Amino acid sequence: MRWLGSGTVYLQMQKVSVLLFLAWVCLLFYAGIALFTSGFLLTRLELTNHSSCQEPPGPGSLPWGHRGQPGACWMAAQFSRVVLVLIDALRFDFAQPQRSHGSGEPPASLPFLGKLGSLQRILETEPHRARLYRAQVDPPTTTMQRLKALTTGSLPTFVDAGSNFASHAIVEDNLIKQLNSAGRRIVFMGDDTWKALFPGAFSQAFFFPSFNTRDLHTVDNGILEHLYPTMDSGEWDVLIAHFLGVDHCGHRHGPHHPEMAKKLSQMDQVIQGLVERLENDTLLVVAGDHGMTVSGDHGGDSELEVSAALFLYSPTALFPSTPPEEPEVIPQISLVPTLALLLGLPIPFGNIGEVIAELFSGGKDSQPLSSALAQASALHINAQQVSRFLHTYSAATQDFHVEELRRLQNLFSKASADYQWLLKNPQGAEETLKAVTAELQQFLRGARAVCIEFWARFSLVRMAGGAALLAAACFLCMLASQWATSPAFPFYSLLLMPVAWGVTGAVVCAGLLATTGLKLDAVVLAAVAAVGSLLPFLWKAWAGWGPRRPLTSLLPIPRPILLLLLIRLAAFFSDSFVVAEAKATPFLLGSLILLLVVQLHWEGQMLPPKLLTIPRLGSSAPTGLPRHSGTYALRLGVGLLLCTRLAGLFHRCPEETPACHSSPWLNPLASMVGGRAKNLWYGACVGALVALLAAVRLWLRHYGNLKSPEPPVLFVRWGLPLMALGTAAYWALASGAEEAPPRLRALVAGASAVLPRAVVGLAAAGLVLLLWRPVTVLVKAGASAPRTRTVLTPFSGPPTSQADLDYVVPQIYRHMQEEFRGRLERTRSEGPLTVAAYQLGSVYSAAMVTALTLLAFPLLLLHTERISLVFLLLFLQSFLLLHLLAAGIPVPRPGPFTVPWQAVSAWALMATQTFYSTGHQPVFPAIHWHAAFVGFPEGHGSSTWLPALLVGANTFASHLLFAVGCPLLLLWPFLCESQGPKRRQHPPGHEAEAKVRPEEEEEEEPLMEMRLREAPHHFNAALLQLGLKYLFVLGVQILACVLAASILRRHLMVWKVFAPKFIFEALGFIVSSVGLLLGIALVMRVDGAVSSWFRQLVLSQQR
Amino acid sequence: MHKLSVTQGSTMKNTDIRRLFYAHLLCVLSVILSTFVPSFFLESFSILETHLTWLGICSVSVTAVNLVLYLVVKPNVSSKRSSSSHKVARFLKCCIYFLMSCFSFHVIFVLYGAPLIELVLETFLFAVILSTFTTVPCLCLLGPNLKAWLRVFSRNGVSSIWENSLQITTIASFIGAWLGAFPIPLDWGRPWQVWPISCTLGATFGYVAGLVLSPLWIYRNRKQLTYKNN
Ligand SMILES: [Zn+2]
Ligand SMILES: [Zn+2]
Asked: Domain for residue B147, yes or no?
C-alpha cells in the first residue's frame, strides 16, 4: 500500500486524536457528574422483608409468653388506640415551655415562643402522663423523606435503590403496613403526600393539597372540619392528622412573623381539644416532622432544621418519674419501635431506631426492679430486630465495613448473653440489669451511627469538587473550541498529554490509597485522574494562549446569544421555571429564531443567492423572483415558529400544576373509543410516516444521492419503506389488539412481538450497510473519459501523499461535474438545470440524513403512535433551522471553518424542546414505562438491562437524534452553497438572465462539501470545534443544574424538582455526548471512505 | 463657510432634539394620563382589574397624541404635493397597515405560546397596544411605505433623529413586551402575572423608557451621529 504515505497517516492520526480528545472531555464531565452525584444523591438499598407476629426477631423465648393473647405480638399492647398529630415543621423551640424568668429578665417576645401553652400546662400539672422530647431529625429534612422515616424507622435517602420510580409508594416494611395487617382501622386527614406514600392504606381519608405554600389555612381548616367528628364517632384505631399551616407560614412569612403566633395558637387549641376528648386506652402523639431555618425553609441539616418537637401524652400514668428540667434529646425515629411495641405490633423490619425505654416501665406504681426488667426486655427485642436487619442488609450489599459489623455483632452477642443469663437468674441482679441495659443501648446507638455514616450525609466536599470539575471542563471546552481553528493548534501534545497525565495521576493516587490502606473509591479516583489530566492541559493552554491574545477573546459568544444562554441557565435555579421549562424552552427557541432573522435583516445579509437553494420539499419553498429574498429568512423563521408551536401541542403536564391538562394525543390509539376517530388518527400517523419517508427520499434525490447502486442507497430505496410498512402494521395491531377475534389472538400477539424486532433489525442492518459503504456516489464510465486525463496530467504517477490527493480531489470532482452536466444537457436540453449531479458534494450530509432516519424509526416505535407527527415536525424543524442558520453563514473559501455559537445553542434548545414535545417531563412518574414492552409484550423475565435500554431510548430519543445530527450544523452551509458562487457574479439587477447559465462558468461550479476535503486539516479542526461547542452548551446546563441543586439543597422542592431535573439532565448529557461522538465518528468514517474511493478512481485511471 | 455650515447643522440638531424631547414628553404624558384620568369618570377603574378598558384607552390616547404630533410637528416634510383624495387613500392605507400589524402580532403571540382559543380578546388587545407603540409611530413618521420601514430598521439605515428615536422606542417596546413574559411562570401568585397583563405592562414600560431614553441617547451621541440626508 504505497498510498498510505506519511500525509495520510498524519491525517488519520489527526482524526483519531480529535475523537479521543472529545472522548477525554466527555470523561472529564462524567467524572464531575459522578463526583457530585456521590456527594448529593444519598443511596441506600431498600429491603422488602417484613416483620411478622409469628416470627420473633431472634432466638429465645419472648418475654412473658404473650403470644397467646389477642392483639399482642412481640410484646403486650399498652394502648389500643393512638392519635398522631403531625404539625409540619414544628421546631422544638416552638413547643418549648417558657420558664418564668425570676431574675427580672423580660419574657421573650419572639412570635413563636410560648404559644403552645397547653403543652406547658400539661407538663406541669400531670408530670407522669406527659413528656416533651427534643427529637433529632436526620437530613434531608423534607416532608416526604421525614414521613418515610417516621413510618419505617429507617433513614430515607433520595435514591432508595430498588424503589419503584413510577410512584412514591413505600415498599419497605412500615408502621402503616403493620397496622393494616393487624387489622387496625386508620383514619387520615391532612397533607396529601400520604396518599402517594400509602395508597389504599386508610379506612377513611381526607386529603388536602400540600403544594400551595402560600395558602396557610385550607389544609388546617379542612382537618379541623373532620377531626372532632371522627374522633367522637369512634370508628378508628389510629387517627393521623397532618397539619401544614405552620410549615406554610414558615415558607411564606418565616417564623418571626405575627402570623406564626396565630398559627401556633390555633395548634394549641387543637391539642387542647384533643386532650379533652382523649380516652384512657389512647395515646396522643404530637410531633413535628422537622424544624425550619431562620428564614422558614428546610431540607438541609442545620441545627434549627433537625430539631423537632415530640410530645407524648396518655390519660393514664405512664412515666415513673417527673420530667427532667431540660427535655431529653432522642432520635426522632425512636418513635417507630416505641409506637410499634406500645400498640402490640412487630417492629418494622428495617427500623434502626431505639425504643424510648422509660415508656415501658409499667407506670408510676410498678416495682423498680420489674420496671427495669421490662425496659431491658423492650430494648432486647429492639436490639434483636436491628441485629437481624443489619445481618440481612450486609448480606445484600457491601455498604458496611466488615470490622464495624463484627464489632457490633460482638456487642450484641455479649448483651444478648447477659440478658439471657438475667432472665434465668432474675433475683437480685440490679447491677447486671443496669449493665445489660447499657450494653443494649450501646449496640443500638452504634448500629444507628454506622447506618448514618453510610447513608445520610451530604458530602459538601464532593459536591463542591464535582461542580468545580464541571466548571473546569466547561472552561476547557470554551478555551479549546476557540483555539481549535487556529493553525497552531497542537493536536498530538494535546491528546497525549492529558491522557498520560490522567493515567499517571490515577496510578499515583491508587498507589497512595493502597499503601495507606484506605478503601479505594472509584469515583474519587476518576476525579483525581480527571483533575490530573486537566491541570497540565490548562497550563499548556495558558502558556500557548495567554501572552498572545487578550483575555476578552476567551468569551467569544456573541452578546445576544450569551444573554439567552444566561437566561436559560438562570431558569435552572427557579423551581417554577424548571416546572415550566416545557413552555419556556420553545419561547427561548422562538426568541433565538426571530433574533437570527432580525439579525440577518439588520446586517443586510439576506443575500439573493440563497434564495434558490431551498429544496422543493419544504412547504415554504420559495419559487418567486429574488426580490423575495428578503422574506426568505422571514418565511423560514415563521415556519420554524409554527412547527415549534405545533410540536408544543403534544405536551405533558408536570404534576405540580393541577390546572394544566395533558394533551390527549399522548395516549396510545388503543385507548381511544370511537372507531372513526381512531381510524382517522391512524391514517394521520401513517401519513406522517409516509411524509417523513418521502421527504428524506426527495432530499436525497435532490442532491443526487439516490442514484448509485451502492447497498445503502438500495436500502434507502427498499428497506426504509419496508420499515415504515412494519411500523404501520405494528400500530394497526397495537391499536386494534382488543378487537381482534379470539382465533387470531395468538397470531396478533406473535406479530406484535415480531414486527418491532424486525424493524429494529432492519434499521441495524441499514446502519451496518451505511458504515460499510458510506459513499453513495454513482460512478459512471464517463468519469474515466479522456478529458479526465487532461485534468490529471500534472501527475506523472500515482499521488504519493495526502497533499497530492487533496490537490487532485477537487479537480476530479469538478471534472465529474462537467461530465454529468454534459450528459444532462444532452438528455434534458431545455429548462433550468437541477443540481442532481452534485452527489459528491453532499456525500457527508447524505450519510448523516440516512443514519438519522434509520435511527428515528426504532425510536419512533418506542413512542405512542401519534408522536410520529412530532417526529415529522422534528425533521422539518431541524431542516428549516439548518437553512436559516446557513443563510447567515458565508462559506469560507479556504477555511478555517467555524460553527457559530447561535447554531449550537439553537440546536441544543431544539433538543430540549423535542424532549418535552415527545411527551416527557424530568420527573420519575412521567417516564414512559410502556416502552419496555415494545417488542416484548410478555415482559422480560429477570433481565433488567434490556427494558432499561428501551425506556432510556424512549426518554432520551431527542437527545440522541440531535446529538448524532450535530455535524449537520457544520455541513449545511456547504450544502446550501450549491448555486451560491455563480449568483454572486451577477449584479442584483440581472437575476432574470442568471437562469440561463452561461457555459463558461463551469470552473466556478460549487464544490459544496468537497470544500471540506480541500482543507482536511481545517475539516478536522472544525469537527473538533463543533463537538467542543456542543459539549460546552450541554455542559453549562448540567453545571447550572448542579449548582442549583447544591445551593438550593434546603429548598422545599429540592427532592421533587431539582434533584430529578439533575438526574435527567445528567443522563441526557451522557446520551448526548455519546451520540455526538457517534455522529462525528460517522462523518470521519465517510471521509475515510471518500478518500479510498478517490484513491481507487485515480488508480483505475493510471492503468 | 464650511465651519459656518457645521455650526448651523449642530444648532439645528439641538433644536431638533429639543422638539423631539417635548414630543416624547407629550407621549409619556398621554400614557400616564390614560392610567389616572379615567378613574375620575369610570367607577372601579384600575389597570389590573379593568385591564382591557385601560388597554383601549391607552391605545386611543397614544394614537391621538401621535396623530396630533404628526400634524403639528411634521417631522418628515414631504416635498410632494398631494391632493385630498390622495390623502384619504393614504389614511385608509395606514388603517389597513395598522390592522395588518395587529393581526400579525396576534399570530406571532400565538406562535410564541399564547393560548389559541381562550383569551382571544386579551391577546388581540395586547397586539393592538403593541401596534400602537410600534406601528403607529412608524406610520406617522414614514407613512405606509414598507421599504422605508425596512431601511430604518437596518444597520446605518436611519436618516434623521426622528427615525433614530423611532428605532429606539420601537425596539424598547418589543424588548419590554418580551421581558414581560418572564414573570408569568413564577409562583408568586400576583394578579399581574396573568397573560397578557405582564406583557402589556412590559411593553408600556419599554415604550415609556424608549421615549425617555432616546432623546437623551441622541443628545449624548449627537457628535457621532451623522445622517446621510442631513
Ligand atoms: Zn414537613
Ligand atoms: Zn415545608
From this structure: yes
